[in-house]
Each structure stands twice: as C-alpha cells, then as structure tokens.
Automatic annotation (TrEMBL), chain A:
Family listed: Belongs to the complex I subunit 6 family.
Role summary: NDH-1 shuttles electrons from NADH, via FMN and iron-sulfur (Fe-S) centers, to quinones in the respiratory chain. Couples the redox reaction to proton translocation (for every two electrons transferred, four hydrogen ions are translocated across the cytoplasmic membrane), and thus conserves the redox energy in a proton gradient.
The species this protein was found in: Hymenobacter armeniacus
Keyword NAD part of the UniProt annotation: yes
Reaction catalysed by this enzyme: a quinone + NADH + 5 H(+)(in) = a quinol + NAD(+) + 4 H(+)(out)
Protein name: NADH-quinone oxidoreductase subunit J
EC annotation from Swiss-Prot or TrEMBL: 7.1.1.-
Domain of life: Bacteria
UniProt keywords, alphabetically: Cell membrane, Membrane, NAD, Quinone, Transmembrane, Transmembrane helix
Membrane topology designation: Multi-pass membrane protein
Cellular localization per UniProt: Cell membrane
TrEMBL record, chain B:
Enzyme class: translocase
UniProt EC number: 7.1.1.-
Record-listed [4Fe-4S] cluster 2 binding positions: 88, 124, 127, 130
Name of the protein: NADH-quinone oxidoreductase subunit I
Chain ranges of the 4Fe-4S ferredoxin-type domain: 69-98, 115-144
Cofactor binding note of this UniProt entry: Binds 2 [4Fe-4S] clusters per subunit.
Taxonomic source organism: Hymenobacter armeniacus
Gene3D superfamilies attached to this UniProt entry: 3.30.70.3270
Localization, UniProt: Cell membrane
Alphabetical UniProt keywords: 4Fe-4S, Cell membrane, Iron, Iron-sulfur, Membrane, Metal-binding, NAD, Quinone, Repeat, Translocase, Ubiquinone
NCBIfam families: NuoI (TIGR01971)
Cofactor: [4Fe-4S] cluster
Reaction catalysis annotation: a quinone + NADH + 5 H(+)(in) = a quinol + NAD(+) + 4 H(+)(out)
Membrane topology: Peripheral membrane protein
Automatic annotation (TrEMBL), chain C:
The protein's name: NADH-quinone oxidoreductase subunit H
Function: NDH-1 shuttles electrons from NADH, via FMN and iron-sulfur (Fe-S) centers, to quinones in the respiratory chain. The immediate electron acceptor for the enzyme in this species is believed to be ubiquinone. Couples the redox reaction to proton translocation (for every two electrons transferred, four hydrogen ions are translocated across the cytoplasmic membrane), and thus conserves the redox energy in a proton gradient. This subunit may bind ubiquinone.
Cytoplasm in keyword set: no
Top-level class of the enzyme under EC nomenclature: translocase
InterPro entries registered for this protein in UniProt: NADH_UbQ_OxRdtase_su1/FPO (IPR001694), NADH_UbQ_OxRdtase_su1_CS (IPR018086)
Reactions this protein catalyses: a quinone + NADH + 5 H(+)(in) = a quinol + NAD(+) + 4 H(+)(out)
Membrane spanning stretches: 6-29, 77-99, 119-141, 162-181, 193-214, 251-275, 295-318, 330-358
Taxonomic lineage of the native organism: Bacteria, Pseudomonadati, Bacteroidota, Cytophagia, Cytophagales
Keyword Zinc assigned: no
Location(s), subcellular: Cell membrane; Membrane
Swiss-Prot/TrEMBL keywords: Cell membrane, Membrane, NAD, Oxidoreductase, Quinone, Translocase, Transmembrane, Transmembrane helix, Ubiquinone
Family per similarity comment: Belongs to the complex I subunit 1 family.
Domain of life: Bacteria
Membrane topology recorded in Swiss-Prot or TrEMBL: Multi-pass membrane protein
Length: 169, 192, 359
C-alpha cells in the first residue's frame, strides 16, 4: 500500500464523513466534490486516466454544479431544517448500521488478487483500449446509453423551443 | 392620418433574412467598424488633449477671472463708484468706498477708492457687464485665468488681495496677457 | 550544468506557471489599451513608457486596499472562492504543448508541462471546475446579487460545456487521440500538403470559439458579472486582492482558451514550411540537424505565442464591439442553436471521414 493510496483513502473517508455530518448543505456538497476528487485520484493510481478525467468532468464538473445550484436556490439552513421524530432517527441508525455490518462481513475475507509485475499490462486503462472494449464487446449497451442521452438532450432542446404565439422579444 | 412632416418613413415588418438570423455577418460588420477605429487611434493623431501636459487654447472672447487694474504709475484705478455692482446681474460684487488720505496719492488714482472690493465667484456668471460698466477701466475679466476649485465656499469670495493686479511690472498683464520683457522694461522706466 | 530530465521538466512547468501569470498581468494592460483604441481614446500611458508599468501600479493598489468581509458571509468559503478560481485557472495551462522539443546533447526537453494521453479531457475537466470558484464566492458573499451571478455562471457554464464538448468531438474523430501534443503533430506532416484543423472544421471552430467566450465569462456572455443588472455579479462583495484574484483568473482562462484554440484548430507550434526551412538550414547553412531542429522549435514557440496573442486580442476586440446578451437569449443560443449545430457537425465530419474526403 503506497503512501499516496493511504493519503487518498484517508481524505476520501474523511470527506465522505463530512458529507453526512456537515450541518450546512453547501458544505455537504463541497465535501462530496472532494470525495469525487479522491476517487479520481484512485482511478489514476489504477492507471485509468480516462475514467479519472471523465469522473471529474461529469460528476464533479457538471452534476455537482447542478446540486450546488439547486441547494443555493433553496437556501437551506439550520432554521428551516425539518425535525425528524426520534423513531425515524433510530430506524435510520439501525438500517445504516446493518448495511455497514453486511458490507464489513462481505468484504472482510476478500484478499485482493495481486498483479504480477512481469505480466502486468501498463496500457490497460488507456483511452484507446477502453474505446476498443466499449465499441467491440459492449457496442449495444453503449449505443443504447448514447441514444438515451441524445433523447434527453433533444428533449431539453424541445423544452427550450419557442412555442407559436409565445411572446417574442 | 396626414403626417405633419414628409420625413416619416413607413416601416415594413419583414421577417429576417437568413443572414440576419445567423447574426454572424452583423458581428463581422461590427468588428470591422471597431477595427477601423482601432487603426485610426493607433496611427492618426489622437483627439484627446493630454491635459496637464497640454492645454486647449482659450477662445479669443473667453472671460475668466476678474482683475482690478492699476494705471501706468502703479496706482489702483478703481474709484468705488459702484457701477459694476449695479450692472452685475448676479449681484456678486460688493464694495466699501473710502476717502484717500494725504500721502496715499501714489496708491490710489482718484480721491475716492475702494477700501474693500469683493466678488463672489460662486455667484458670478462671468458675463462681463462689470467690465463694460466701469468708467475708469479698472475691472477686467482676464482671458487666461479661471477661478480654481476650492474646498470651502468662503474661499470663493475674492477680496482685494486676490483681485488687484500685482505691483511689479513683470507680474502685470494687459487684458490678462502677460507683458513681454520689453513692455515690462518700458513700464519700469515710466515708473522710475 | 547537468540536470536530470525530471528537473528540466520541472523548470518547464515553472516557466509555464510564470508565463501564465505574466500574460494575465499584461492582459489587464492590453485590455485597457485595446478598449481605449477601439473607442478613440488614449488608454493608460502615465506609469512608465506607454504605461507599461500600469499592472504594477494596479497590483500595489489592490494589495493595499481594505480587506472587507460582508456581514453574515461564510468567511472560510468567502476566501476559498477566489483561491479556487485562481488554482483551477492556473492548472489548466499545464498540458498545453508550447513547443516541440529542444535537444542539447542527450537531454531532450519537451516544451510542455506534462504530457498525458487524455490532455484535452484534463483541460476540459479543469475548466468545468472553474465555475466552483465563482459559485462558492458568490454564495458565500451573502448577497442576492452575488448569488444571482453565481447561479447564472453555473447554468451558463454547464450549458455551453455540452456544445463545446460536442464541437471538440468532431476534432477528436479526425485526430483519434486526446493528447494535445499528438493533435498538434498531426496537423503538419513533412513533405506533403497538410492543412490545419481550421480548414477541416470551420463550423466546429465557430461553435468552439462561441463556447469559449461563454466559458470564460467574457462579453457578450459576461452575464455572471453583468454590471447593469447585478452590480458586479459574483464579485460584488469582493475587494482587495481577492477581487484581483477573480479578475486574474478570468484573464488566465482567456489565455488558456486562446492556447487551446491555437493548438486544436490553428496548428499549435507548427508554422508553414517549417520542414523546408529546417532542410534549408541543414543543407545551405551547414548547421547540424539538431541545431536546425532547435531553431525550428524556438520559431514554433514564437509562432504559437503569436497565435495566442492574436486570439487574446480577438477576445478583447469582441468585448468592446458586441453588447451583452440577455439571459434567455444566451440559453436559447446554447441549447437550441449551438448543440444541434454541433451534432450536425459531428455527423458531417463522420460522413466526410467515411467517404475519405478528410482524414
């Protein structure tokens, strides 16, 4: 375990805790962005440059901006925070605790398969390799996903289109 | 309705052409206009007057700060007749007249003189009527001086200390135009 | 003097950093002079010859101004906002190839901060993070106008990133790589006629440059700071050097956008007849091949900077020509015109590649 990995994991765990524990929702979102950064760092350590960059562009750069956007609009703060009944809090704690238990139990005995330095392919995470895999083995799901996204984009364009009779400035 | 002038244009509301809707030709048109200005500013002489370094010339009919003139012998010309104060449409001039004592003949030209003479530069409209009213050719509006800005209002009330022309010939001016050294020498010889 | 290769690379990174800062500094001066000339004025000419020391005077002014924290502001985030804007702006110039390589004996120095095979995505990712500096600063100011500016910045950047990415895809379809260095090298091949990407992607370039204006928050898309409606937008409450950092970050973004456009569409460090010139230097002037290559590299560096300065000038030229868009016009332009146009461009490029018209 390299010191870089330890550092990234430490920051990732700390910021993930920050997401849950921060009182201010804007702080929560910022912690979540930091978590995504550390995840990208992990991808880089795994030699997956493309995945790291896309993770930052899509999650940190676009989706979290929208999150922040909405939260800033709502202007949530401690005064407007709804108070949950004690029963719900206890139920949430039990549910979360059991999930943690299951995860720990499932991952406790996993021994990561180490890589052999001689046979390790250093180019594995590179963008051209990834492209070949996506377009050869997973061409159908990839195209389906892209059609879904295209449909979403066309939908947003249609929403923005002027209707006939709408006021034209 | 009959139009009042023949300049009115009838506007037809046509749908925009493709070039107009594409907006890019209009942008390039605007860019060429600004670029023309850029080259004009960069190559031709600029219109800007760089003020502290260069000043714009005053107009020949410019009327600036007042001065109370002295005569050739260096005596004050003003006799405190009050005609300037009467002529003044803004009522900016006040004065107190006094009698000339014995031994002051080299200071004041007439037997009556202005003990105090004040012009309020905030009221003054620099019309020049005082200059026209003066029978003794004592008050003039200089063509090259202005009342500078001040912080306090009472600093704009100019007394005799700031209005009367200085005594030394080199500081004298004729209608506000500084005397040349030759003219100053001539005046000095006359005074001696 | 012996330095390991990594040491040289460190120097290149440092130089990139310094050049970004220097160019941003003098952009403030250039902006004023160009604005003045476009409006038949004189511009700053008091500090030093031709006013060249004006940026220094500005820096002194900004540093000595009062540090102001608005009431009810989130102090930590209020400071963090401008820092983030500056950091993200500076980070993005790291992958831009400013020149080919210099060779002294055995040491080869690539005139590029870091070469990664997803260079374009790196720039894209960092640029998409740039909006956080504006959003956080605008929100932390505890001011309605700042918040509106921040929200405008967010939605504007996200909308135009899509069109920008789609315009970029058409270039990447031809190049087949994301590395900026590879894209540059592909735009000039020895011994054959080879055009820069602008000749193959004119539509894509127009879309890209419009989106670059929107991404750097420059007029006609400077709605986040729109002073007629929002006072100063996201930096209304900022004073002193925190304000300066925001302004600086904007100019660094302009510099990076210009550099990226030069690299993607205008051949980067290539210039016409470079190989002929190198061969002529070797054959007629009797220079060694290495020396001739070094000369070509340096000329290419100068050429790239000339292109970059041309684009920076264009940014300023447009700023003082076009009025600001209205917000709904901006969104309509982005979503209903640029994005369909970019998709059409992708299909057109795909068709042309399939039929072998361009490669």
């Amino acid at each position: 375990m390299s010191p870089l990995f330890l550092f990234l994991s430490f920051v990732a765990l700390l910021s993930a805790l920050g997401v849950v524990l921060a009182k201010n929702p804007v702080h929560s979102v910022l912690f979540l962005i930091l978590t995504f950064f550390t995840l990208s760092g992990h991808y880089l350590l795994l030699n997956a440059q493309f995945l790291a960059a896309v993770n930052i562009i899509v999650y940190a750069g676009a989706i979290m901006v929208l999150f922040l956007f909405v939260i800033m609009f709502l202007n949530l703060n401690e005064e407007t925070e709804p108070h949950k009944p004690a029963l719900a809090k206890i139920a949430a704690a039990i549910a979360g605790g059991s999930l943690l238990l299951i995860l720990v139990a499932a991952l406790r005995n996993v021994s990561p398969a180490g890589y052999d330095a001689a046979s390790f392919d250093s180019q594995i995470g590179m963008v051209d390799r990834l492209g070949l895999v996506l377009f050869k083995e997973y061409a159908l799901p990839f195209e389906l996903a892209s059609i879904l996204l295209l449909a979403a984009m066309v939908g947003s364009v249609m929403l923005g289109k002027r209707e006939t009779g709408e006021r034209n400035f | 309705m009959e139009s009042l002038s023949k300049r009115a244009k009838v506007l037809e509301k046509k749908p925009m052409t493709f070039a107009e809707r594409a907006y890019l030709p209009a942008i390039f048109q605007g860019l060429t206009i600004t670029m023309r200005h850029f080259f004009r500013a960069a190559t031709k002489k600029q219109i800007t007057v760089r003020y502290p370094d260069e000043t714009r010339p005053f107009s020949p009919v410019f009327r600036g700060l007042h001065v109370l003139k002295r005569d050739e012998a260096g005596r004050e010309r003003c006799t405190a007749c009050g005609l300037c104060a009467v002529a003044c449409p803004a009522e900016a001039i006040t004065m107190v007249a006094g009698e000339r004592k014995k031994g002051e003949e080299n200071l004041y030209r007439e037997e009556k003189y202005a003990v105090s003479y004040e012009i309020n530069m905030l009221r003054c409209i620099f019309c020049g009527l005082c200059e026209e009213a003066c029978p003794k050719a004592a008050v003039y509006l200089q063509a090259d001086k202005m009342a500078p800005p001040r912080f306090e209002r009472d600093e704009f009330i100019y007394g005799k200390d700031r209005l009367v022309e200085p005594v030394t010939p080199d500081n004298r001016s004729k209608r506000g135009i500084q005397l040349t050294p030759e003219q100053a020498d001539k005046l000095r010889a006359q005074l001696a | 003097m012996t330095l390991p290769a990594l040491g040289w690379q460190g120097l290149v990174v440092l130089a990139t950093f310094g050049i970004s800062l220097l160019i941003a500094t003098y952009c403030t001066y250039a902006e004023r002079v160009i604005a003045a000339f476009l409006q038949d004025r004189v511009g700053p000419d008091r500090a030093g010859p031709f006013g060249l020391l004006q940026p220094l005077a500005d820096a002194v002014k900004l540093f000595t101004k009062e540090e102001f924290f608005p009431a009810g502001a989130n102090r930590a985030l209020f400071v963090f906002g401008p820092c983030l804007a500056m950091v993200t702006a500076l980070m993005s110039s790291a992958v831009i190839p400013f020149g080919n390589f210099l060779q002294f004996g055995d040491t080869i120095i690539h005139l590029q901060g870091i070469e990664i095979n997803v260079g374009m995505l790196y720039v894209f990712g960092i640029v998409s993070l740039g909006v956080y500096g504006i959003m956080i600063g605008g929100w932390a100011s505890n001011n309605k106008f700042s918040l509106l500016g921040a929200i405008r910045a967010a939605s504007q950047n996200i909308s135009y990133e899509i069109a920008m990415g789609l315009a970029l895809i058409a270039v990447l379809m031809m190049s087949g790589t994301l590395s900026l260095r590879e894209i540059t090298l592909q735009q000039s091949v020895a011994g054959e006629w080879h055009f820069w990407n602008i000749a193959k992607q004119p539509l894509g370039f127009i879309i890209f440059i419009v989106c670059a204006f929107a991404e750097t928050n420059r007029t006609p898309f400077d709605l986040p700071e729109c002073e007629t409606e929002l006072i100063g937008g996201y930096h209304t409450e900022y004073s002193s050097m925190k304000m300066g950092l925001y302004l600086f970050a904007e100019y660094i973004n302009v510099f990076v956008a210009s550099a990226v456009m030069s690299v993607l569409y205008f051949g980067g460090f290539n210039f016409p007849f470079q190989y002929e010139l190198r061969d002529w230097l070797v054959s007629s002037r009797g220079l060694e091949l290495v020396t001739a290559q070094n000369i070509i590299t340096i000329l290419g560096l100068v050429g790239l900077f000339a292109k970059i300065f041309g684009f920076i000038f264009f940014f300023m030229w447009v700023r003082w020509t076009l009025p600001r868009f209205r917000y709904d016009q901006l969104m309509r332009l982005g979503w209903t015109i640029l994005i369909p146009l970019a998709i059409f461009n992708i299909m057109l490029t795909g068709g042309l590649i399939t039929f072998g018209v361009i490669k």
